[in-house]
Input
Amino acid sequence: MCGIVGIVGKSAVAPQLVDALKRLEYRGYDSAGVATLNNGKLERRRAEGKLVNLESRLQDSPLEGTIGIGHTRWATHGAPTEQNAHPHFTQGVAVVHNGIIENFASLRDELKEAGAQFSSQTDTEVVAHLVSSYLAKGATPKEAAQQTLARLEGAYALAILFENHDNMIIGARHGPPLAVGHGDGEMYLGSDSIALAPFTDDVTYLEDGDWAVVTHDGVEVFDSAGNKVDRARQTSQGAAMVADKGNYKHFMLKEIHEQPEVISRTISHYVDFATETFKPISEGIDFAKLDRLAVSACGTAYYAGLIGKYWIERYARLPVEIDVASEFRYREMPLNGNMAAFFISQSGETADTLACLRYCKQSGVQIGAIVNVPESTIARESDIVFPTLAGIEVGVASTKAFTCQLAVLASIAIAAGRARCTVTDAEEKELVRALVSLERLSSDTLGSGEAKIEALSRDLAKYKNVLYLGRGTNFPLALEGALKLKEISYIHAEGYAAGELKHGPIALIDEDMPVIVIAPFDGLYEKTMSNMQEVAARGGQIILITDEKGAEHVSIDTMSTIVMPEVPEFISPIIYSLPIQLLAYHTAVFMGTDVDQPRNLAKSVTVE
Ligand code: F6R
Output
């Protein structure tokens, strides 16, 4: 999603702006631009595509100036062209924006009628024109910004630069996050603290509805009513989150291989290894008193939630309703005081998930958040935070955040089971042991199987469509496998509950349709085998992911069988995620796609 930076600096800021934008690349973008004030005049450079294009533009034609704003754009309104790239300029004003101005069409009509000339198809340009129009009527920059904000509907983080005002950037936040960085005689704005990490770790997060006047001397923050407000300064973890690829070819591969360590780190937050019991993680939420749990998330985080539902219902006997966030918020689910609502998000900034959180909060429902970014809006607005300690995830396709979400959900299921007396002391110890074995088992899996998966990926890359099948917790894993493959390799893939095959998808089966079956040798193995037989009978190519016993019992020829270590059933979705991720990764590498930043995708989805 779009990324914003702003610097009120002491020396030439264009290189610093580009440096900060590079740290926002992980969010996904398709064009970029920077603007500075040079002797009071606004100048900008913009380019389609990656930041290297903007850098070469700046090399050919450098930008002077000690104050400036920058932007990486993920297109919503208008194609990813240079013309639509930010910053947008109007009379005396430059604007960068993350979000969607929902009433942009009516504002544009109004502004056009008043004589404004539009030069892009973006919603953002109305913001710049509005500010200009208020300036033209005699407003000061502060007044013009405030009057403009009052007219906007939708979601925005904004940074506005004004001609002839070389000591002021105005930032505003309504929805997407915006952080102010405090430096030594320099001040900064950024979509997150990671962007600001090279400059400062001293940050102030704007709250929803806030706007801020940033100058060399500091920042003044105002709420939506225009009252001056104090917002705390905090030391951000952004600096620690600055990541590099190490010896890996892609961030995604590095993040896949980090999983043994980060899963273990996450588990140790919830589990007392010495006593083999869960730490009291649920302070503030009495699971014994709940009559149901609502869970909501998007994409991969939603699939983690689906697996969590199986666990929480099985071990804690607590009914779980789960929805994708974009549906939850509009389906008018009845809410009550005996329930809690949990939201799962790597970034902690996903607009749909955040909107659901706020919807539940308004109704007095207790809010829990399973998040990876501790400073994120979702974390800050929740009553109780269950951190995933995956560290920064740069690859757009979620891998380690997903398995850490699973580790947290597994812990919550057992902690809730203890609180509800559905898990005994002995069961708790056994389940803790299973969680503790995750580091070893995930490390064995990654160590032993990758070469075979890489070779198999070469074959998979030849197909145009792939199906994934699984039962029980392997059904959501089938959905996740299909998502992973399609989002980075662009091969069409779908996941199904294995039992659903005969209700429609079986019509697709022929020799050109590989079917990836996730079937550890558990209580559902035989049932899944029957579905595999149905595929084989129709000439489908089967890739079976199973364990040694499963491989021994399989009675049909497969295109390939990936043999996993034997793992306790409870944790098998976490371990079986690994071959699924590797398969998608290596297939995408063979396809030659941009694995870490696949087309059209964003890491942090801050619009609806
Ligand atoms: C897919 C992926 C996305 C995210 C989704 C939610 O690999 O990463 O589907 O899971 O956009 O993002 P977060 O977890 O940041 O709320």
The CA atoms of residues 40 and 165 lie 7 Å apart. The pocket of fructose -6-phosphate is lined by residues 298-301, 345-347, 350, 353, 397-398, 483, 487, 604-605 (CB under 6 Å).
